[in-house]
Amino acid sequence: MLSDIQSRTGPVAPQDVLHRIASGTFGDPFAVLGPHAVADIRHVTALIPGAETVEALADPGGAHLLSPVPGCAGLFTGPVPGEGAYRLRAAAKGTVWETDDPYRFGPVLGALDEHLIGRGDHHRLWEALGAHAMTHEGVAGTHFAVWAPNARRVSVVGPFNQWDGRRHVMRRRGVSGVWEIFLPGIGENASYKYEILGPDGALQPLKADPVGFGSEHPPANASVVHDLRGYGWSDDAWMQDRAGRNARSAPISIYEVHLASWKRRAGGREISYVEAAEELVDYVAAMGFTHIELMPISEYPFDGSWGYQPVGLYAPTVRHGPPHEFRDLVDAAHRKGLGVILDWVAAHFPVDAHGLGRFDGTALYEYADPREGFHQDWNTLIYNFGRTEVANFLTANALYWLEEYHIDGLRADAVASMLYRDYSRKDGEWVPNKNGGRENYEAIALLQQMNTLAYGTHPGTLTAAEESTAYPGVTRPVDQGGLGFGYKWNMGWMHDTLGYMAEDPVHRRHHHNKMTFGLTYAFSENFILPISHDEVVYGKGSMLTKMPGDRAVQFANLRAFYGFMWAQPGKKLLFMGQDFAQEAEWAYAGSLDWAALERPDHAGMQRLVRDLNTLYRGTPALHALDFSPEGFQWIEADDADRSVYAWLRRGGPQDPNAVVVCNFSPVEQPAYRLGLPAPGRWREALNTDAGIYGGQGRGNMGGVTAEARPCHGQAASARLCLPPLSTVILVHEPGA
Question: Catalytic: which of 256, 360, 413, 525?
């Protein structure tokens, strides 16, 4: 059926329009190109630059020679009677080729898509925008759609049209600002970009697809067509059970990974998704972690950003393989009982010319005012969180990973920079909110919406915030005024405890409260205790080299700290390499020092982390009440002179209690009387000084028996051997 606009325009348009069609500067090509009714006879107008002759091959009806339009090279027109499909046959310099005419196809997007995109609540935005291989009106090809509301003209370009923006100018879909076109014959693995004329007619740098599902290998940066349909997931059992695995009462121990530098191959090749599906998954499972957290996987141009400056927010980086192989990694993790968390970067994006910056010739995705829209620290652009289409782009992206890749959780990066308009800015360098304050109301609303949608549409998933300030209610539900995250990284705990551990043990008595202060606010949020990549880079050294003393003392300190960390209230996160005490700080361009495991001290540390995970997962007292004051009680918090800390952890009514004692001094306490909540047998479940971990084997072999002698405010007590620089964990054995 021919449209009214086609009927009105016909194959003969004003000369200036024809010249603009031929030059690729006319923004409404469907009004001229393709089939049009003139006096009840179909005419076809085609633009094929470089062609000498063009025929329309109609079925039925045969070949119809189209006439060249004078003064408009590459433009041909003529009658093609009938209403059926036709193809175009062109010839030039003895070469003949056939193609379907993209301008004979109707729109793919419907009115509902336009309405939802315009309103900013298309929760499956990736199904409307981007490049989708499909069969449309009986012909195989790819549908392209992109949001560029201020553009004068948008074209799809790629090797299939010699990167010529005249050939495939797109159709504008009303006030939605979306442009679309169906290109027959284009399919999987085709590279493409968008060529855009800005509102002033200026040609913009070629742009990658904001909703593209894949990319070329860096440094090339074109988007790549990938068909996401039809993957055969085998993780039904995991998906049914994962709500319990992500629950606040569950043991959650996260292994943070930068995939490019986890384990490189000969010649420095990065590990593939398929290789990681076997090696990384097997390693993390064997180490007893519950989740893998991947540093940003969304496509990024600069290796040195570690993925935190993404350009292709909907594209798993091609550095490790195509999208379906990333699904293989997630599927393999689920089959091993591991959750997968992705770092999600909604705070900012890089200024690379092919990216989102001034996408349609205007400040579209970013705030226009650099006081709002430019990150001085990172040389990046800040999303315009208050623009409905931009907020939709981000919230839909979160849902995309949960839906299309079965991701179990999202950790939002740099949340503090989103919440505050004056983040890392001096007076006069930022724009106050409508009330004159520093809070970014638009970013707050975006995060609340993301969390509401994530938990509402994908129950059982989790979200976590990297938020370094004391912003209230990060993990409070949205309907109670909070941001709605499930968890928050406890950056204060990390800073304080690492500061304490860096002190020479003889001076620690002067800094005793650094290890206790975190418990004054431990239950104000649902905290994850993070030892992340940020703590072992940029000259900060590795976890091992942060510790004072000679090599043996460094190892003892680190073992004691890990015991302290795993026994504190809060979920756990440890960056790769710190599980075996890699000596060098992390280097993104290299590989972890796996050869270190040939040395007993490193192998002992790895075994300790594995055993800590095993004890943590198998002892409800160490995880079930992480976010409730009922799950924690100090036994000894004030023994600064001996640098000793002791506390009680409780689980459910039927779960055995655990008691944790840390001696952060270099002096052994061979008969330290410690109050215990109940008499009877207390098993030494873990001792970081054990010989199997590289320690001296001092401690309480077989456990201790508590007598009904009150101490430390407890009903019973026992004498313990506290090795120097150690953590000892005791578990009550009722009835023993």
Answer: 413
